[in-house]
Amino acid sequence: MEKYMTVILTVFYFSVFAVIVLVIAWRHASAEKNRLYEAAGRILDDILRGRKVTVPELKEGEIHVLFTKAARVQEILLLEVEKAEEEKKQVKMLVSNMSHQLKTPLANMMLYEDLLIGKKYHTEEEKEKFLKQMRMQTEKIDWILNSLFKMVKLEQDTIEFATGAFSIKHTLVAALSDVFEKALKKDISLVMDEFHDIELIHHPQWTQEAFANILENAVKYSPGKSRVTINCQTYDMYSVIQIKDQGIGIPKADQQKIFFRFYRGVNTKEQEGYGIGLYLSRLIIEKENGYITVESAPGEGSCFRVFLQNVPPVSK
């Protein structure tokens, strides 16, 4: 009997001890839970009031993990807010620049429209002149808008820009055909030196536009009866397409700025332009993992060099 009582008392004391342990553990868990709730409350309060979430010095435990993750979330949110603000500024600047670029051709178009509607012309020849001028202003507006749309699409990566291995000579010939008429009017020779055609990594249509923009500037800022030469040289990893003119040249201080959006050089004010073409060319070439440089001096012409990747050799 005594033996059984000992067993019963042992079981009873063990059970009491187990209950005490469970109670202590429950109270500890509840306290830990309360600490987590309080920590979460402090984190939310910091975020809502715009204060930086400070991670406690304690390196272990659920509270430290909670604070660390909250601080990371806050960093991401702040980066997104900054990005949204920057995009807002960019849109505002773009709208302002678009307004500035379109103001002159729109004003001219309205002027010619008023002249035509009011029949303020004396001969049919004068009427045709006004109509021609009006069409020219319409074409300018169309060109500006198309260029701006392309620019925005390239900047925002909203177009599919797939590059591949294509003949560079075909792309150059297509670009030359785009500016041939303008060169002809000024009696400017467009000369492409003989070179062995190769395939380079590029997008033919977009690269054609990049080259055409550079060639158009070469024609615009060169005197009549001058010469624009194009050649291609191949190196280990890149090939260089060189476009050289005999134009007015570019001051040293402007040679990097001319690739910025809407920038026009100090010696180009007499010529009509919008500061879009070379910026577009730079965007296009950079999309193809290439780059563009210029070497020039006032009165000595300009030499633009476009670097495009060679097709990688096939590994055996």
Give a structural overview:
It is a single chain. It is built from six helices and seven strands. It has 316 residues and is α+β, with helices and mostly antiparallel strands. The strands form two sheets. It has a five-stranded mixed sheet with strand order 2-4-5-7-6, covered by helices on one side. It has a two-stranded antiparallel ribbon with strand order 1-3. A hairpin with a 5-residue loop joins strand 6 and strand 7. The radius of gyration is 35 Å and the shape is globular.
Fold blueprint:
Elements: H1 2-48, H2 62-117, H3 124-156, E1 164-167, H4 168-185, E2 189-192, E3 199-202, H5 204-220, E4 227-234, E5 238-244, H6 277-287, E6 291-296, E7 302-309
Parallel strand pairs: 2-4
Antiparallel strand pairs: 1-3, 4-5, 5-7, 6-7
Helix pairs in contact: 1-2, 2-3, 3-6, 4-5, 5-6
- As laid out across the biggest beta sheet, the strand order is 2-4-5-7-6
Global mean pLDDT: 79
How large is the count of helical segments? Answer: 6
The gross shape turns out to be globular
Helix-strand string: HHHEHEEHEEHEE
Provide the low-confidence segments as ranges.
9-26
Short description:
By secondary structure, the chain is of the alpha+beta class. Helix content is 58%, strand content 13%.
